[in-house]
Amino acid sequence: MQAACHLSKISRHRIEGNRISNSGDILLPGIPTIRSATAPALPCPAERALLQQAETACRRLAKSHYENFLVGTLFIPRAIRQDFFNLYAYCRTADDLADESPSPEAALTALRQWRSGFLQCIDAELPLAELPHPIFVALRHTIQRHRLPPQPFLDLLEAFEQDQTVTQYATFDQLLEYCRRSANPVGRLVLRLGGCDDPALDALSDRICTGLQLANFCQDVRRDRVLGRVYLPAEDRQRFGVAESDLDAPRAGEPLKQLLRFEVERTADYLRGGLPLADRVPRWLARDIRLFAHGGLETLRAIRRGDYDVLQRRPRVTRWRQVLLLGRAAVGRLS
């Protein structure tokens, strides 16, 4: 499942005796600080030590991820960086359980166990030492500190579970509903970590997160097809005369190119439509918002430069363009 937005294979590792493979693609937006946040009191030294060990595990997982993740943390204030790592570790591990399990049945079992662990995590009556995974120890601290709602975490798990049984979508509305659970919760949690609890801001964040997800679908038509998944809605394929078998060709035919042109323009509208969010949040968070939104737009430009042939070669944003985007974001030149 592609839940935040750019794929990159990396090495496997272990955390506190639990296997966590990292081979996915989510790229979370930078997490802002929350001015009123206060850390919950830990009643005893043993629990403080347990939390420190858990946070170290989350930090190592996050820092072992590919370089674009590290770039994405550059603008995150140090005071809340650990909360970002804890949130990332939860999402990353759930994504890996969905993608790395040997079968859909095994994935569903693993995801149900992860859901059970999360429900224990938010049960404040349960001692830290009884939580089933160190990630939940660290995550509880972040949830309590920032008063994060549980629903976005559960929505993400529903999307990962859906990936095990649904491999394509009949309509664009169905695809948007999938994005509502697979991508949008991340942005909403980011806003809550930044002290932003406003439906209007949520709506703008949803447009960016959905846009990033859709851009990834356009970019990875070949890769998703190999995995048995098709994220180009059937109604759109029918409209442009694209058969499912056309996705197996070595090169994109003209009907598929026309379809991709349509999808790219619609996706760009989502990304551009969410950019006003950057004008309504703290400046350092605005940098991340603009960086990721413009990164999605650059992915769409790469598809255009390749004449919409996403089958022959996966469109990529060049290293130079990545550096340029980062530099412009750092000096506030992205808008």
Automatic annotation (TrEMBL):
Residues in coiled coil: none
Domain of life, per lineage: Bacteria
InterPro entries: HSQ_synthase_HpnC, Isoprenoid_synthase_dom_sf, Squ/phyt_synthse, Trans_IPPS_bact-type, Trans_IPPS_HH
CDD domains xrefs: Trans_IPPS_HH (cd00683)
GO MF annotations, alphabetized: geranylgeranyl diphosphate synthase activity; squalene synthase [NAD(P)H] activity
UniProt GO BP: terpenoid biosynthetic process
NCBIfam families on file: HpnC
Protein name: All-trans-phytoene synthase
The organism of origin for this protein: Roseimaritima ulvae
Gene name as annotated: crtB_1
